[in-house]
Structure formats: C-alpha cells, structure tokens
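Supplementary Text 2. Reproducibility record for the structural model of the 287-residue chain.

All settings were left at their defaults, and a single model was retained for analysis rather than an ensemble. We include the record here because the model underlies the residue-level annotations in Supplementary Table 4.
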Amino acid sequence: MSARFAPRAPDPARAGIGLRTPHFEALAGRRPALSFLEVHSENYFADGGPSLAWLERFREDYAVSLHGVGLSLGSADPLDREHLSRLSRLAARIEPALVSEHLCWSSVGGRHLNELLPLPYSEEVLAHVCERVSQVQDMLGRTILVENVSSYLRFASSTIPEGEFVAELACRTGCGVLLDVNNAWVNAVNHGTDAREFLAAIDPATVGEIHVAGCETTPAGLIDTHGAPVFPEVWALLEETLARLGPVPTLVEWDTNLPALDVLLGEAARADAVLAAAAGARRRAAA
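Retained model, structure tokens:
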C-alpha cells in the first residue's frame, strides 16, 4: 500500500457508478465528482495485470466497492475457500469501503453457473444462509452487505416474505443490506407483489448501499439486464426509499450495452438529485 494512501469512504450525498474497462481512460482523465466506484470482485482476483493496476490508481481518488457475483452464498456446496482467500487478498490490497455479495446460489455439485439464482424463503434456508454469511464475515474479518436479487419464479416452499427474510438475515448475522431497488421492482412486476412492502420490511439501520439499474420489458415480464437507463418507476421507488432512509451510497449499475461515459454520468447526476432531495428533507425535518 502506498504510504500516502488513506482509504476513502463513499459520500452518501453523491452517487457512484460501476467501473468498467471501456471507461478507464476517460474516468482517469476527467475525474468526475462521484461518490464511489464499484467493481465485480472476481475480475480483479489476479495478483497483477493492467486491470488491477487501474483499480489501484482509481482508489487514490474514489472510494471502492467490491461487489461479488460468484460466492454462491445460498448453495448446498461447501463455501469455496480459495474464492474467499482471493477475495481476502484483494480486499487487503485495495482496502475497499464496501464488500458485498448476492443472496442467491450459483453453483451445485462443484459446477458454477453464470446466473444469480433465487432461493426459497423458508426457515431452513434462512438458517443455512445465516451460517454461511457468518462464516464469510469471520473469514474476511469484516461485515459484508448482502443484496436482494431479481427472480423469474417463486418457490412453492417459501413461507417467509422476501423482505422479512432479508431483514432477518441481517438481524441474525450482523451483515448489512445492499438494497437493490430495481430488483425489488422487477420482482414485484413479475410476481404481482408489492415492492413497497418489501422495502418497508428492511431495517433502515442495516442498509449500507443502494443499487438502481435498467431492465428490459418482455411479454413474459421484466428481465434484469443492467443494460438500459433506469426506469421511471425505479426512480420513483428510489425517491420513496431515500425519503425513509435518508441519503445512502447509491450506485447506478450498467453492465451490458455500455453507453458512453457521459450517458452513465447523466444517470448518476439524476441519482445525485434524488439524494440531495432526501438530504434536504432530513434537514428540514430536523430544523
């Protein structure tokens, strides 16, 4: 670690964006005012190389969030100790402000799938995931954030509402919640549920980060693509959520069909405006 480096914390009054390779040079040259940059942890597991060098450069100017997509927290397979070891080394090297994973499973029988698959919400599964989250936090020596995922089916064996499941996971393990507002809306549309009911179940004190993203409308429902501007309904849900929580580090996700950097910064500016409105409302309420 550089002697002049001090880890940064996200500014909850400003939004962040995902750090993607096509934007490296433009971001480095322009250094726009962003709260933080988020990367998929697994893309930086190598012990060297140009991508890791870029990330070390960006951490000098921005807080960094490591967002995992491959730990498979809900799987019946044993936790992947090598994966956790690589994540631990990356976290020690980058000193991120936030480390997060998805509430899902993506491996079975040692085979890894390129999907974030939903879990049944039952007491048995809750106990299983709580044990695994606690193990991960012990191995990493830090609290992680766990994100609610989008889904295209519901399990008949589910007995606990999704929001209560996520809230109880945080309560039992001490983990934080990465609250994905887009995923909450996608699930509500796809399953005919109430996104606001899900969001209201989450303890505000546990929310350490928020995601918004774009999706795709199809005749069968919404597909969480992260490849389009944020939908108006998701912006409205974000406004309601931040009115309840106050400003929280908020990320605009855009992972496929990447636009020019200015388009992404425009989405971040819109999130900034929502965050500013929430902060202003808090100040007025306290006056």
